[in-house]
Design a protein that fits this description.
single chain; mainly alpha
């Protein structure tokens, strides 16, 4: 986040990459913390210690200390008995099943298949990078965890190689083609041809060859591809829209199949989701016909009679146009609290009681 902000001015939506290169070269200095009521002079000096040089120095300092941080993560988790009990032999996916479900990235490599677009179909400068592809053996949550930990180490190696190359190869960061990039403000104010290029570039853009384009990259969660129609053909075929696929599709598909769902407790599903690197997808759909004012909705009938009367009395205070949303929000909060209480009564897991004592099947 600090690097994004230093190089582009934004923390979330970096406008740094442009057609033909990047917006500007890496800055020679990093923004520094200032003394405030939240940070003392001593804290500021410690935080600014790595920011005294250029951005490349800042990145190099991070890559030097990051392996030690990964070692701390592994010391905490890799041989932890509780962690292994919760991940070993949980969510086992065979290599054949992983291919059938369309897994990619750590999900696929955790099942023992060595597939990485950066190696198999290299793009950008990955063919010049020296890194390894971690592969699992058993296809369970523990293997997927180990794969991700090793990928952090390999990513650190790639960053170090890029920093070294950038130090040795300074030069322009944008292609010198006025059909692709706009002229600078100085040139536009002094040269009529540059002014014309600037006007036509921002009013018409640039024309790309007609046809289809397909691009795939190896994202942190897996393979992500994009298919789109370019040129005049896209204007003629207005019904055809760009298509994209993110790694979550394969993971969500596997969550509904036996080999991936099989587990002993509800918590197994959450661990599978966390080790796959994706958030759970809601399988419940709501239509406008389901959202009725009052507690006669079938979903709200799951609440107790006392809670339903309380919601009806509370919703009646709102104007008619706002009663629907008020009812749904209030019912959701009550349903969550009652569900927690019911689970606590049903499985005997109460505060202060170890899970092993409440669940003999562990």
């Amino acid at each position: 986040m600090d690097l994004y902000e230093a190089v582009s001015g934004t923390r979330m939506h970096a406008t740094y990459y442009r057609p033909g290169g990047v917006y500007r070269d890496l800055p020679g200095t990093m923004p520094k913390y200032q003394v405030s009521k939240w940070r003392s002079q001593k804290d500021v000096e410690r935080l600014n210690e790595a920011r005294s040089g250029s951005m490349l120095d800042f990145i190099k300092a991070f890559t030097d200390r990051f392996p030690a941080a990964i070692d701390d993560y592994e010391t905490l988790l890799t041989d932890n008995r509780i962690w292994k009990q919760r991940t070993v032999n949980i969510g086992v996916v065979s290599p054949e099943r992983a291919l059938q479900l369309g897994f990619s990235g750590p999900m696929l490599r955790g099942s023992g298949i060595e597939w990485d677009l950066r190696k198999k179909q290299p793009y950008e400068v990955y063919e010049r990078m020296d890194f390894d592809i971690p592969v699992g053996l058993n296809g369970d949550c523990y293997d997927r965890y180990l794969v991700r930990v090793e990928e952090m180490r390999q990513s650190n190696r790639i960053i170090q190689q890029c920093v070294e190359w950038l130090r040795k190869n300074p030069g322009p960061v944008m292609i010198d083609d006025r059909k692709v990039r706009p002229p600078s403000r100085e040139q536009m104010k002094e040269d009529m041809e540059s002014l014309i290029h600037h006007f036509k570039f921002f009013t018409e853009g640039y024309e790309v060859p007609e046809g289809e384009t397909y691009a795939a990259v190896e994202a942190p969660k897996g393979e992500c591809w994009h298919l789109s129609h370019l040129g005049r053909r896209q204007q003629a075929l207005s019904s055809e829209v760009p298509r994209s696929r993110v790694p979550a599709f394969g993971r969500a598909r596997g969550d509904e199949h036996g080999p991936y769902v099989g587990g002993r407790r509800r918590g197994d599903r959450l661990r599978r989701i966390s080790c796959s690197g994706n958030r759970p997808l809601s399988t419940e759909t709501h239509s406008s016909a389901d959202a009725k004012v009052g507690t006669e909705n079938s979903k709200l009938k799951l609440l107790s009679e006392h809670t339903r009367h309380e919601i009806d009395h509370w919703v009646a205070k709102f104007p008619p146009g706002k009663q629907r949303s008020a009812c749904i929000g209030r019912a959701a909060r009550h349903a969550t609290s009652e569900q927690r209480l019911s689970h606590g009564r049903s499985d005997g897991r109460r505060r202060g009681v170890p899970e092993s004592a409440a669940d003999p099947g562990v």
